[in-house]
Amino acid sequence: MSTDASEGLPASAPSHVASRRVADQLKTAILEGEFLPGSRIFQEELAARFGASRLPVREALRTLQSEGLVTLRTNHGAWVTRLSMEECLEIYRIRERVEPMLIADSMQRLTPDDLAVILELAQALDQTSDIGEYFRYDRQFHLESYRASRLGYLHSIVERLWNVTQYYRSAYTRLVDQNGSRWILDSEHRLLADAIERNNVDDAVQLIETHIRRTRVTLADHPEIFEIDATV
């Protein structure tokens, strides 16, 4: 039986299985910055890279469009979603309002195992000196703190907002690391982890709102972050 060399899948595997695999791998590549915002995505190249036919590639692109990572233009192809500074700041204003709701709901349902994961990620954030690791731990830490929420619709919206601003948060994280102000982020993460551990919802809500606002204000002061030279 012939198989997909990259994943060991049968060549006759259902299209939706192949499309999910392509979507997951392309999502990782975009989130890790391999594809810059505004980059053109060529279906033929993806099909060759992931060992898939064009049908599951098209399905994967539609999936990533629904997750905010890809923009599909009729008769023009697919592109990695790009934001203007104004659009990005608008998203941060939305996040300032809705993520406090999400963490408040989640904290009511966190299990001891959930808490252990959150505290472990907070410790990893505090200890790593690698900026790439720091950025990955930061995303995991915050999304894990929301995971127990039963506000499913809001949770999916927030994750989409995180996806579409991933590149800009990465640029912000590198900026504060370079200018020596990462200690502020570290302090906020430690305080937030402590509030979650104490199950103090009021403190957590205030901290997450301040945390997001600080990023928005810093991004507004650095328009050069949005001047991306993507190959198109």
Care to describe what's here?
This protein has two domains: 14-80, Arc Repressor Mutant, subunit A (Orthogonal Bundle); 85-226, GntR ligand-binding domain-like (Four Helix Bundle (Hemerythrin (Met), subunit A), Up-down Bundle), CATH 1.20.120.530. It is built from ten helices and five strands. It has helices spanning 15-31, 43-50, 54-66, 85-107, 112-127, 131-146, 152-164, 166-178, 182-197, 201-220, and strands spanning 3-4, 9-10, 40-41, 70-73, 77-80. The strands form two sheets. Strands 3-5-4 form a three-stranded antiparallel β-sheet. It has a two-stranded antiparallel sheet with strand order 1-2. Helix 5 (112-127) packs antiparallel against helix 9 (182-197) and helix 9 (182-197) runs antiparallel to helix 10 (201-220). The termini are far apart. InterPro entries: GntR_C, TF_FadR/GntR_C, Tscrpt_reg_HTH_GntR, WH-like_DNA-bd_sf, WH_DNA-bd_sf. Keywords: DNA-binding, Transcription, Transcription regulation. It holds the Pfam family FCD.
Q: Write down the secondary-structure element order.
A: EEHEHHEEHHHHHHH
CATH homology superfamily of the largest domain: GntR ligand-binding domain-like
Number of helices: 10
Q: What's the CATH topology name of the largest domain? A: Four Helix Bundle (Hemerythrin (Met), subunit A)
Number of beta strands: 5
CATH class of the largest domain: Mainly Alpha
Number of domains: 2
Low-confidence stretches: 1-13
Give a brief description.
The chain has 232 residues and is mostly helical. The protein folds into two domains: 67 residues, Winged helix-like DNA-binding domain superfamily/Winged helix DNA-binding domain (Arc Repressor Mutant, subunit A, Orthogonal Bundle), CATH 1.10.10; 142 residues, GntR ligand-binding domain-like (Four Helix Bundle (Hemerythrin (Met), subunit A)), CATH 1.20.120. Helices cover 67% and strands 6% of the residues.
